[in-house]
Amino acid sequence: MSTDVFLALAHPARRRLLELLADGERTAGDLAAEFDMSRPAVAEHLAVLRQASLVTDEPRGRQRFYSLNPDPLEQVGAWLHPFERFWRRRLRDMADLLESEDEQ
């Protein structure tokens, strides 16, 4: 798993692009319309995602279609899996604390 994947996921605009692409392929213009930033800025974020192999692109005529490549995300999920017990314990502790405050 490349550090490029983590760097790509670090930016909220890139995470939003991945969320949009989870619903299916989209054109660059469709994706850019979802953001309050310039089309070149969105294109730069797409380039970072492409370099990290998180998206693929295919030119069709005058448009470029982007698709999600889930393989790197599966690798991230597999890497994070051993840490789930830590978060589950923390969330359980937080739920217990909130319940005890509600009872008071």
TrEMBL record:
Alphabetical UniProt keywords: DNA-binding, Transcription, Transcription regulation
Keyword Transcription: yes
A Pfam cross-reference name: HTH_5
Domain HTH arsR-type positions: 1-88
Organism: Actinomycetospora chibensis
Keyword Protease: no
Taxonomic path: Bacteria, Bacillati, Actinomycetota, Actinomycetes, Pseudonocardiales
Superkingdom of origin organism: Bacteria
Protein name per UniProt: ArsR/SmtB family transcription factor
